[in-house]
């Protein structure tokens, strides 16, 4: 969902109001939807107490930036025996989760080397004089990796521990020979940060299946900012023919947001195929369902059927360029060619995608359909012409009026709601 920061001088485009994907739930009016979005949006913003989160985020940012490698592109230190191995990745994952980036828990790249540190046992203390870690206990004395240091005059202890069954994740070629380092993944991985004995943050990852050869992965993760009463959960399941992810955001015991996605098809857990760039979405993806629920009041549900080439239809280029001195063709012909490509995607989406926003526990809905939208990038008086046709979703209301998201979510219509979120984002940025 996007917001457009412009005056609301568009009364909408007249079009069919039935839409698709609403499951015969009555279609709402423009005003009803606006009122509900405004109400729920402000209620959600009010649930995010940035001041309560500030101590946790500030501590994790300090841990991330003070002691560890500043090169974000280097996820793994050159020397795995360094005591800071993996900790920057752990602290970054915790901090992003605390700031509401649920995707941080969904990224295996983001938490991949956190598995490695769970295998390093010992205790280190930060020496403020030498600005180095001093080892004060080795692996024979500790069954986890422990780091102690001072933060704002207080004692801080960060600890990472792996336990339970170990999964060995190693890539093998067709003959069964390993061609990469084996990663040992504990069934349960727990990372904590405590300040003067008070638990500030905890990340727990439970792995149920991890098999490169068998092409399956199943795990769930939970991040908790304990002092702020804030929690994010994430689960992932992939057995190569079916894959599903789900993330939830809680404030105390109240679930604020749920996001989920599931697909079926082929080669969904083939890491080599995906990372090499040869994964063919049109051939391998069949059906998909995407859902987002906000405080059980507003939800967005999308189902897609790719059995008839939906992904392929969206592999189009709607951009066009024309120079007045071109000997062949005309501005109208190149513009029309781009429009036809886009219209092909629009027609496929309207046939094979069902989508709708639902309000007040599905009391009423706003169906979504797709249309070709034109953007002219040309300058007046120029000999060069350029523009783009884009396949965009449109909201369908009870009286037949349709709006693109940009046309509907304007400052004029949602001024106070946009202001509330700009203030919220500003608080996060200023932490």
Assembly status: single chain
Approximately how much helix is present in the residues?
25-40%
Indicate the overall shape. Answer: globular
What structural class do helix, strand and pairing data support? alpha+beta
Number of strands: 18
Order of SSEs, N→C? Answer: EHHHHHEEEEEEEEEEHHEEHEHEEEEHH
Mean pLDDT: 82
- Computed over alpha carbons, the radius of gyration is 26 Å
Low-pLDDT ranges: 1-19, 69-80
Strand content: 35-45%
- Note the main sheet: 18 strands, mixed
Q: Number of helical runs?
A: 11
Overview of this protein structure:
By secondary structure, the chain is α+β, with helices and mostly antiparallel strands. The chain is built from 11 helices and 18 strands. The chain has an 18-stranded mixed beta sheet that branches. Helix 2 runs antiparallel to helix 3 and helix 3 packs across helix 5. The longest helix has 22 residues. The protein is globular and about 75 Å long.
Quick tags:
431 residues, alpha+beta, 18-stranded mixed sheet, 18 strands, 28% helix, 38% strand, globular, disordered N terminus
Gist?
The protein has 431 residues and is of the alpha+beta class. The protein has helices spanning 30-47, 50-66, 87-98, 103-106, 108-117, 271-275, 281-284, 310-313, 331-352, 405-408, 411-429, and strands spanning 13-14, 122-127, 132-137, 145-151, 154-169, 183-195, 198-211, 216-225, 230-238, 242-251, 254-265, 285-294, 298-305, 319-323, 353-359, 364-376, 384-396, 401-404.
């Amino acid at each position: 969902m996007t917001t457009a920061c412009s005056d609301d001088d568009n009364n909408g485009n007249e079009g069919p109001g039935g839409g698709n994907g609403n499951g015969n739930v009555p279609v709402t009016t423009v005003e009803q939807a606006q009122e509900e979005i405004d109400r729920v949006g402000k209620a959600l913003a009010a649930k995010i107490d940035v001041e309560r989160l500030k101590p946790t985020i500030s501590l994790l940012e300090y841990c991330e930036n003070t002691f560890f490698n500043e090169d974000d592109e280097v996820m793994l230190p050159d020397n795995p025996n360094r005591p800071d191995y993996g900790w920057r990745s752990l602290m970054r994952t915790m901090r992003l989760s605390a700031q509401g980036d649920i995707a941080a828990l969904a990224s295996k790249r983001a938490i991949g080397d956190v598995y490695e540190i769970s295998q390093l046992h010992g205790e280190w203390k930060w020496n403020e004089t030498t600005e180095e870690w001093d080892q004060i206990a080795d692996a024979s004395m500790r069954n986890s990796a422990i780091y102690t240091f001072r933060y704002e005059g207080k004692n801080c202890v960060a600890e990472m521990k792996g336990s339970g069954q170990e999964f060995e994740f190693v890539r093998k070629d067709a003959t069964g020979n390993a061609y990469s380092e084996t990663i040992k993944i504990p069934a349960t991985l727990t990372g904590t940060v405590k300040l003067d004995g008070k638990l500030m943050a905890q990340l727990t990852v439970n792995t149920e299946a991890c098999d490169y050869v068998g092409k399956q992965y199943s795990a769930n993760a939970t991040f908790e900012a304990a002092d702020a009463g804030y929690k994010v959960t994430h689960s992932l399941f992939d057995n190569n023919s079916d894959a599903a992810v789900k993330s939830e955001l809680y404030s105390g015991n109240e679930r604020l947001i749920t996001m989920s996605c599931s697909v079926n098809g082929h080669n969904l857990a083939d890491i080599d195929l995906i990372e090499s760039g040869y994964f063919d979405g049109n051939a391998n993806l069949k059906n998909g369902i995407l859902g987002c629920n906000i405080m059980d009041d507003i939800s967005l549900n999308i189902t897609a059927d790719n059995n008839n080439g939906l992904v392929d239809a969206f592999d189009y280029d709607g951009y066009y360029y024309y120079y007045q001195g071109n000997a062949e063709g005309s501005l109208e012909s190149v513009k029309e060619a781009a429009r036809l490509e886009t219209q092909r995607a629009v027609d496929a989406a309207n046939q094979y995608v069902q989508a709708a926003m639902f309000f007040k526990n599905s009391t009423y809905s706003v169906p979504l359909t797709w249309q070709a939208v034109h953007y002219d990038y040309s300058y007046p008086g120029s000999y060069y012409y350029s523009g783009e046709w884009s396949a965009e979703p449109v909201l369908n209301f009870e009286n037949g009026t349709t709006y693109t998201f940009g046309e509907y979510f304007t400052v004029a219509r949602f001024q106070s709601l946009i202001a509330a979120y700009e203030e919220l984002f500003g608080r996060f940025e200023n932490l």
